[in-house]
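Re: Re: ligand-bound prediction request (bumping)

Still looking for help on this. To restate: I need the protein modeled with fructose -6-phosphate bound, output as structure tokens. Inputs repeated here so nobody has to scroll up.
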Amino acid sequence: MCGIIGYVGPKPVVPLLIEGLKRMEYRGYDSAGVAVYDGTVLHTRRAAGKIAKLEAVLAANPVHGAIGIGHTRWATHGPPTERNAHPHRSADGTISVVHNGIIENVNTLRAALQELGYVFNSDTDTEVLAHLIQELFDGSLEEAVLSALTKVEGTYGLAVLSSRDAGKIVAARKGSPLLIGVGHGENFLASDPSAVLAHTRQVVYLDDGDVAVIEHDAYRVIDAHAATISRKVDRIHWDLAEIERGGYDHFMLKEIFEQPVSVENTMRGRLILDDGTAKLGGINLSHDELLRIDNVIITACGTSWHSALIGEMMIEELCRIPVEVEYASEFRYKNPIVSDRTLCIVISQSGETADTLAAMREAKRRGARTLGLVNVVGSTIAREDDGGVYLHAGPEIGVASTKAFTSQVVALALLTLKLARKHNLSVVRGRELAQAMHDLPAQIQTVLETATVIEAIAEEFKHATNFLYLGRGYSFPTALEGALKLKEISYIHAEGYPAAEMKHGPIALIDDQMPVVFIAPHDAVFDKVVSNIQECRARHGRTIVITTRDEPALKGLIDYEIRIPETVDMLSPVLAAVPLQLLAYYIAVKRGANVDQPRNLAKSVTVE
Ligand code: F6R
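Reply:
Sorry for the wait, this slipped through. Here it is.
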């Protein structure tokens, strides 16, 4: 979603702002802009569309300075046009604002400012901030911002620049991430660490309610009453190479191929083969507390919600504890039943998804223990949960989630193993599961070696307009995930269903044009799925079957076969997801789609 970058220092600011914005392109956006102070006045340059358009605007009409702010906008209030792009300027042109989030009382504020004579030049909620800060300005930018924020309802990560109190950027955070990149004789502001990593590894993550004043040789974090508060300096541990394409055509393909390593990293130091259990240092739950859990709620969105469904099956099967999976956006508004014996597992790649964060806060407020399964280190969910399991999958840049999904399933398996061994799971069965987990990275590698087979299938189906994905048991959430991958990057309509449920409606869609992907590993429900494949074939559906071994029962039923290795039932989604990701990827590429930045999508959805 929207990205913010800011810089104060000795260097020419425009190239730094553009580079920072490009590092955040993966988050999804539809317009971009910068504001630069040249020592006398504030200049604004903006463009609808990609950053290349903004660069063209800057080339035609250059600006120079050593302090500035930049923004990539994902439209909420008003279409993605130049006039709605950030930064927005105050009426007198002395204040520039970039903003992520949503101002909820925008109409009241706009009406009040219009009464005072302010004229609005955009459809955005952000513009009210620029005028409001001008109205309240009395010599100190931070005081004007603090005062403006007392009147604002909603969420924000914002950066403000003024020519009347120059040399500083004032930033504020409530519900939308921001960090300070601490340099030597220069400082940065960003909504995403990837925007500053080329310049510094030292970052200060702002908390909700923080306001920061950033100058070239100093920064301060203050509270709503302007009192200084101390925030620790964190270190970014990953490398720039991890957020570069490294020879692959797309980030998505790189991330699919990274999965043997990312899954290995999720398990590193955590799997105890001899005892058939897992060690998870960060969960902050004692032996007794683990045994006290009466019920589990797992909450998440999108792909993370699919891994939650797999987690539900694992925990119920092995721990015999009731589990409910909730869309975070629904959970937060439904008066859920939660007690102090409820464990609320919160799954999020980014750790910033607004609904997931709100659901976690709601569960906490109602007395649940919260446990975050998060990939991005230092993200808000990771900082606010009661305990956590980092995925350690490495930065995921492609908008379509791939390696985070397989790492989520593996993290859930680690957690299940630990919990189940505290309950009734035997050491023998525990060892079996632990060994199966240990074998996953090499098995994923085997699946990746079938990429050319999958590419050939993609060629066959690249013009399809609909797809069905069917699976049962652990393969049902995998079917949902396969369908989501295809629709989000290729724009082909795709639906995932429990295979037997097909008979209750979707079967009407099946004809000789309809590709139907069956996820059919040799698991507890294999024979049942074979019957469903037969039903599909009887209607001349075109079957693409992901399965694990030669099987007489499948003879004559398969048009295209993708072979994956065998594993225990609960881990089969990890192996089956990989060919589904590749199928979606190759189809999208063959259709000429922008795989890493699909239309309308954002990597981290920080608005409700
Ligand atoms: C799909 C996808 C989204 C995310 C969802 C949740 O490929 O990426 O559906 O899974 O927006 O995001 P996180 O996991 O960051 O909370």
